[in-house]
Amino acid sequence: MKVAELRKKDVAGLQNEVKELQKAHFGLRMQKATQQLTNTGTLRITRRDIARAKTILAQKQAESAPQVAAKNPAK
Q1: Mean pLDDT value of segment 31-38
Q2: pLDDT at residue 32, as a whole number
């Protein structure tokens, strides 16, 4: 999935996308284990799609809840 498509989604949509990608990756791993997977490159693609979606999800969560660094100044 393209980055632009992921950035258009909200946090709930991204979480759903991560779950779907993880299910797809699990299915591909099971196919590989039973030697039914012919194109092993799809494992790499889904793994990177999961990472891409998680990265954008973390960025959106950081934007929605900015952490204020209100610490005491050093003495």
Answers
A1: 94
A2: 95
What is the pLDDT averaged over residues 26-49?
A: 95
* H-only helix segments in 1-75: 3-8, 11-33, 41-64
Topology of domain 3-64, CATH: Helix Hairpins (1.10.287)
Q: Do the beta carbons of residue 68 and residue 36 sit within 8 Å?
A: no
What is the structure's pLDDT at 45?
96
Q: Which residue has the tokens 């954008």?
A: 56
The model's pTM is: 0.81
Residues 22/50, Cβ–Cβ less than 8 Å? yes
Find all residues with CB under 8 Å of 61, minimum gap 6, and list them.
11
Cα 17 to Cα 33: distance, rounded to the nearest angstrom = 24
Structure tokens at 51: 């990472």
**Please, are residues 7 and 55 in contact by the beta-carbon 8 Å criterion?**
no
